[in-house]
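hiii so um. not sure if this is the right channel but i have a protein structure encoded as tokens and i wanna go backwards to a sequence. like what aa goes where. can anyone help
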């Protein structure tokens, strides 16, 4: 990628990330704000992820729980999900990948940190990932967030430095 293309790509990602809090406020009363945010983060103009699963680990309740999953193959053909929030929410309820992610419910990884990569790899396999990556970050209330994902283009490392900043926005979404 040429320097001006790299700068344009960075600019687009940062622009999208800066607009996300305002968009989150627009749907703040809905139970599935995480789905909206993750959908936006996966978009081709943002982190360009083919599939992503957001999972939360709560050691206090010894629980690892799937929160939401986005798959491009099941994407809604709506240009602006934020303006079609009811249709998007209904679409996500029918998404097989999202339901599979939401069905994850097992013991906390914090109880056995040495098994973290193995458990994430097993979950990725169960979810049908072919070439997964994952990252983790701290959430409120001493919880841990995990994102298991596949990029559209594995050579695209332009925005890897911004990924955790974008994912931290999921920390501000209610989890049901």
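sure thing!! here u go:
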């Amino acid at each position: 990628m040429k320097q001006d293309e790299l700068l344009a790509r960075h600019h687009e990602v940062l622009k999208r990330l800066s607009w996300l809090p305002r968009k989150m406020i627009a749907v703040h009363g809905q139970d599935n704000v995480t789905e909206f945010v993750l959908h936006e983060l996966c978009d081709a103009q943002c982190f360009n992820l083919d599939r992503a699963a957001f999972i939360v680990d709560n050691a206090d309740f010894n629980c690892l729980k799937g929160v939401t999953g986005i798959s491009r193959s099941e994407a809604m053909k709506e240009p602006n999900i934020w303006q079609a929030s009811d249709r998007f929410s209904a679409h996500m309820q029918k998404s097989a990948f999202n339901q599979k992610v939401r069905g994850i419910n097992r013991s906390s990884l914090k109880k056995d940190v040495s098994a973290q990569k193995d458990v994430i790899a097993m979950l990725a396999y169960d979810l049908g990932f072919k070439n997964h990556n994952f990252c983790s970050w701290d959430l409120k209330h001493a919880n841990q967030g995990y994102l298991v994902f596949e990029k559209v283009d594995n050579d695209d490392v332009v925005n890897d430095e911004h990924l955790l900043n974008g994912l931290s926005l999921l920390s501000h979404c209610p989890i049901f």
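oh and The first helix runs from residue 3 to 26.
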